[in-house]
Amino acid sequence: MSEEPAAGASQASPADLSADCPRCLKPQALCVCEGIAPIDNKVSLLILQHPQEQDRELGTARLTVLHLKDALLKIGLSWPSLTRILGRPADPQRWAILYLGSVKAAAVPPDRDTVVVNKKGTAVDHQDSALSDIEGVVVLDGTWSQAKALWWRNGWMLKCKRIVLGPKRPSRYGRLRREPRSDGLSTLEAAAMLLARLERKPEIETALHASFERLLARYRELHPHPGGRR
Ligand SMILES: [Zn+2]
Fold first, then answer.
1. Taking the model in full, what pTM does it have?
2. Ligand 1 centroid from CA 63, angstroms
């Protein structure tokens, strides 16, 4: 039940697979992965994707992982432990998860956009030290309700530190996507922001955003008249 689905379970049907890029699994017209030079990140990234998150065109999880040397994308609903997912010993208390629950507005002070919160949703004391000893981050990929399902099915996540993002600018998705995450960011933007802050390397965010902009530009070329949207 907790095992990962067979490879390809969440991917495109065999009929149109030949047209997809084998690395990012997007249609060739939307592939931006050529020339990506993976970044040597120090804080590990783990993206857990809900099996029903199948936005082949605008999904960003796989693209994010291609950008980083230490990043893993797993598709499924539940896993017994972080160690089992990673295949190496890992202490969830040294990892942080991008928190989905409600947070008091005051938890994100104006001078910060990345905050560690406690179980009550308030900012913990000594933010700098709370952020500095984080070994890896978990980002849930999917709509808000899909991410919530992952949260409730994986008890080990409760042991992780909780990070909340307060992005200063809205997602580059704009209105292209109907069901954004609760913080409104794409998985790529959220992961980029987290790693850039934790490692104090703004270039991580710059590199990932550049690819995301390219993806969106191609998407707009492919769908010049996106209609039927609320
Ligand atoms: Zn590609």
1. 0.85
2. 8
